[in-house]
Amino acid sequence: MGFGIEGHRALTTVARILPSAHEWRRMVNSPTLPVSKKVGDPVLRMFALAIVATLIESAPLTYGQDIGGRQRPRFRSGVDVIAMNVTVLDASRRYVTDLDRQDFHIFEDGRPQLVTFFQKGSLPLALALLIDTSASMELNLAVAQEAAIGFVRELSSVDVASVIDFDTHVQVLQGFTSDQAALEGAIRKTAAGGSTALYNAVYIALKELNKTVLDETLTQSRRRAMVILSDGEDTSSLVAYDEVLALAARSDVAIYAIGLLGRETSGARRPNEAQFVLRRFAEQTGGRAFFLGDAKELAGIYGEIKAELTNQYFLAYESDNARRDGQFRRIAVRVERPGVVARSRPGYYAPGR
After folding, report:
1. Residue range 263-290: average pLDDT?
2. Domain 68-353 coded CATH 3.30.70.20
């Protein structure tokens, strides 16, 4: 699975013929090139998206099948039924796991909605594990590999995961599988070098994860999550941040971002761009962002993420808003118990006409 032979050939071919991010900037600022002089120009961004999409579509993926190869009825979250994972914490930040359907109230743009599906306990997981392998990760990569391997070993037999590494280029080292040995082997293959194409990696991972939803029924749904480890700002992506954030907001993938960037100090300084980007990915998808000063803390953070994924509720409702206007609709989840807080995706985009 993953990109496969043809996909890797396409990736290699395009990587050879495409300019680097630095060369793109030089080219589009050249007075002899008949295009906009801004890298962020929509035309250039559309071309970049087309290139990345070509790489994705070249992959012979079969993620619509479950582990046994059986096809399941089609289910699309966020279209007719809005589904979400909900994490509930008490005042001591302990997981609250003894709630029932009647304890939850869902509001869409301030209007109460009827909970049509409820399940406590963890559903099977489809997880994309993204590892920054840029040159700056060289000293920390061995520790990061062991922490990621420990995380993979805690997955259940019904979970599937993929491994994606990114530096100047993005590689799907292992497509979705429940084979933990294969996942561990892929993690150990990562090697440091190059710059940081974070946005390209997130874009590709979202596309891959969204393919896992195509053949699901609501009762057989997998939770989708992405765990990103990065130690710096994006320096070489062809896809713009705005496009990737919009795609993330339109998906039902919870993004957990780990920034090996140094600790934040309250009020001492403004967050840098990398912190802002990782935090926004998490906030817009119902995940969490973590910022570390030492790679030795990674194992504990991966453990926190696994604990949250294990202690979530899965809820769904049918929106009472039948308009197909493509607008963002804000979701609020409240719990009928004093002193507890629920966290979920902040909203979704309605389908267009």
Report:
1. 78
2. no
